[in-house]
UniProtKB/TrEMBL annotation:
<comment type="similarity">
    <text>Belongs to the pyrroline-5-carboxylate reductase family.</text>
</comment>
<dbReference type="InterPro" id="IPR029036">
    <property type="entry name" value="P5CR_dimer"/>
</dbReference>
<protein>
    <submittedName>
        <fullName>Pyrroline-5-carboxylate reductase family protein</fullName>
    </submittedName>
</protein>
<dbReference type="InterPro" id="IPR000304">
    <property type="entry name" value="Pyrroline-COOH_reductase"/>
</dbReference>
<dbReference type="Pfam" id="PF03807">
    <property type="entry name" value="F420_oxidored"/>
</dbReference>
<keyword id="KW-0521">NADP</keyword>
<dbReference type="InterPro" id="IPR053790">
    <property type="entry name" value="P5CR-like_CS"/>
</dbReference>
<keyword id="KW-0560">Oxidoreductase</keyword>
<feature type="domain" description="Pyrroline-5-carboxylate reductase catalytic N-terminal">
    <location>
        <begin position="2"/>
        <end position="92"/>
    </location>
</feature>
<dbReference type="InterPro" id="IPR036291">
    <property type="entry name" value="NAD(P)-bd_dom_sf"/>
</dbReference>
<dbReference type="InterPro" id="IPR028939">
    <property type="entry name" value="P5C_Rdtase_cat_N"/>
</dbReference>
<dbReference type="Pfam" id="PF14748">
    <property type="entry name" value="P5CR_dimer"/>
</dbReference>
<feature type="domain" description="Pyrroline-5-carboxylate reductase dimerisation">
    <location>
        <begin position="153"/>
        <end position="246"/>
    </location>
</feature>
<dbReference type="InterPro" id="IPR008927">
    <property type="entry name" value="6-PGluconate_DH-like_C_sf"/>
</dbReference>
Amino acid sequence: MKLGVIGVGHLAVSMLDGIVRAGHAPSGILLSPRGRGLDLAQERGFALAADNAQIVADCDLVLLAVRPNDAPDAVRGLGWREGQILLSACAGVPIAALGAAPARIMRIMPITASKLGASPTLAYPDLPEARSLLEAIGSTIALGSEDAFEAATVSAAMYGWAQALIRTGADWTAAQGIDAADARQLVARTFTAAGRMIAEEDAPMGDILGQLCTPGGLTRQGLDHLEAEGVPEAWEGACDAILARLRG
Ligand SMILES: NC(=O)c1ccc[n+]([C@@H]2O[C@H](COP(=O)([O-])OP(=O)(O)OC[C@H]3O[C@@H](n4cnc5c(N)ncnc54)[C@H](OP(=O)(O)O)[C@@H]3O)[C@@H](O)[C@H]2O)c1
């Protein structure tokens, strides 16, 4: 399916990096001229549309990655056709707010690790025609309802919070006199390892963590400190606040 992109900003550029990295030719992807569209066409050989209507006229799969408030206006009245798919990455924008009939609408929530082919992208509904695009940027987790999708998209914010934690750990390690580049790699790869153990082992998460937390041990002592400082509740509170805003 020919891909077009409306809204060529931070997210779309990371997705385009991943799509090209997976072997798709930039010349076959049509970009809207705003944002980074013109630069990417001139510097990297993507095709450039005159306007959004040309994207809808020429493409079967259209990625929408404008800021949420801009989304309804960006898709309205563009001449959508039967058989097309509008792939909306806009956080908190329900399908009902996007007037793209008779095109089908699929909501996705990728993260910028798309550029590495490592985005665990959420999707609703699961339309098979979009699968190869999502596989180019990583893996897909399909949800069974739009409500469940909305709740799960809080994970895209957790991605940023995890990066903030990694930075805290890396800065602390460097402050102990460790080379800053080594500290960054050490802490980042430790988080990657923690994620892989949870993602790839079948044992209950409590058992995996339990193996690290021997009574009186260092990991247990640190977890007790974090729990006493209210870290789990603060994390849950942040999730609740983001979801309330998404449902807003
Ligand atoms: N950033 C992330 O990591 C991330 C992750 C998941 C989902 N998202 C979602 O992705 C969307 C984009 O986020 P972003 O961070 O990439 O924003 P961004 O960097 O601000 O990019 C948005 C782009 O959309 C362009 N635009 C606005 N209205 C347009 C229109 N009518 N036609 C064509 N282009 C238009 C803007 O161009 P101008 O500069 O000319 O206004 C800008 O280049 C948001 O809805 C967000 O919820 C982002």
